[in-house]
Amino acid sequence: MKNYLFIFAIFIGYAYCQTDTDAKNLLTNLFTTQSYNKLVRPTRNQSEPTAIWIEFFLYGINGFDEIQQKLTTTAYLEIYWYDELLAWTPSSYGNLSDIFLPQEDIWRPDIALENGFKDLESLGSKFIHAEVEHDGLVLWKPFHVFNSRCKLDSTYFPFEKQSCDIDFVAWAFDESEVYLAVGTDGVNTEDATDSNGQWELVSSSIVSFSDEGVSQIRATLVIKRKPLFFIINIILPIVLLSILNIFTFQIPADIGERMGYTVTVWLSFAVFLTIISASLPQSSDTIPVLSIYIIIQLSIGTFSVLLSAWLSRIVGRADDIPVYLLLKKVALMKRRLQCACSNGKVDNIVKHCKIDQNGDEHFNAKNETDSTKREKSDESNIDWKEGVAALDFTCFWIFIIVLIISTLAMLMTSALQN
Ligand SMILES: *[C@@H]1O[C@H](CO)[C@@H](O)[C@H](O)[C@H]1NC(C)=O
Ligand SMILES: *[C@@H]1O[C@H](CO)[C@@H](O)[C@H](O)[C@H]1NC(C)=O
Fold it and tell me: Whose CA is nearest to atom 14 of ligand 2?
């Protein structure tokens, strides 16, 4: 309470010194006696350029439109310059040191957003006042929602980082009349609330430069997508569906439900893709790594449906597998692997190892004659069922490895660019 009284006392004190008459006199002097004309560029010597300082105060990132490549930000600019025609001596006006004038009543540079989406439009609005200090310093703070163009590279969706430029230009003036400079604060993002659910601000910078004799200010915002939503709702379900899909190869081919299972998984994949397609970046300029990943997983899914259909047809055949068929080679390899894994131990599970024992304690892979002899003796007793089981086993492990490698590759490429 004390503080309020204190401030109130100060306010009274000032008001006492600066009467309304002082302000009226000042305005009469500036606008009538000195006939201030807002069409005149405010330098006494018109061959000297007017320097305009600009600072960019970001309030928040409203959104990013991937199809239109449009960044929407809410911000205000702090623009200040010296209006030499609006200066006065405070002591002549009861120590009145600053006044506020509607922005329409004073000279202003025609600063506009250059890389905007709509027509060029003037900054600020009629009701905004600019502060004028007695030395002629004009402080103008136009508030705006800026729609600027920003090309988004969604290759690394949803881990992409994007740098967006917001360019300001004094449209009509060239450098010798008006030049833009960066004010002391540069880009200020202290007020920027992290209110956007999808984008966060990583860094910001501002520079002034000259483009064909016209001076410009470029504020650069580096924004990053928050990936959590997409990891939980897209990447994770796809990995889980892919695992389900690979387990098709764990179901024996002669069980009728296998086809049902694999088609169901494929259908859930298709339905899921319909759901997430709205969340994926809808631009054809770049193919996101994630889309390639989804295509790989969908291809494996389709392949396993086709393979299951074929295997369920051949699994019931009674005759032996022809020698030239790949199926037979795979089956033999699996046998050898199983024998090697069981370390030559003769047991019921690896019955066929027994056939080749013939006095040897265990298999010796280095022994050429032995292994050819074994192959010959094996060839006669591989049936289709064993061949199909061996192929299932091989596909299961190949696709598990493909899944792990492709998932890691997808995450690594995205992580590396950050
Ligand atoms: C105006 O400024 C120009 C360039 O700075 C200078 O050459 C000229 O003498 C100045 N004129 C007056 C009247 O001060
Ligand atoms: C203006 O300010 C000066 C110094 O602060 C003070 O001496 C003077 O009395 C003030 N004038 C008025 C009219 O308040």
Answer: 17
**Which CATH class, in words, describes the domain spanning 2-226?**
mainly beta
Closest to 222 measured CA to CA, from 200, 195, 191: 200
To test ligand 2's pocket by mutation, which of 14, 95, 96 has the most ligand atoms within 8 angstroms of CB? Answer: 95
Question: Does the predicted TM-score (pTM) go above 0.70?
Answer: yes
The ligand placed nearest to the CA atom of residue 15 is 2
Q: What values do phi and psi take at 104, rounded to 5?
A: -75, -20
Give Cβ neighbours of residue 112 (< 8 Å, ≥ 6 apart).
120, 121, 122, 123, 168, 169, 171
Please report the atom of ligand 1 found closest to the CA of residue 46.
1
Name the phi and psi angles at 147, rounded to 5: -105, 100
Give domain limits for the chain: 2-226, 229-417
Residue pLDDT tens, the chain, 418 long: 444 444 444 444 444 467 888 899 999 999 999 999 999 999 999 999 999 999 999 999 999 988 889 999 999 999 999 999 999 999 999 899 999 999 999 999 999 999 998 888 888 888 999 999 999 999 999 999 999 999 888 888 888 888 999 999 999 999 999 999 999 989 998 888 877 888 999 999 999 999 888 999 999 999 998 989 999 999 999 999 999 999 999 999 888 899 999 999 999 999 999 988 888 887 788 888 898 999 999 999 999 999 999 988 888 887 777 766 777 778 888 877 877 777 655 444 445 555 444 434 444 444 445 555 555 555 557 788 888 888 899 999 999 999 999 999 999 988 787 6
Ligand closest to 46 (CA) is 1
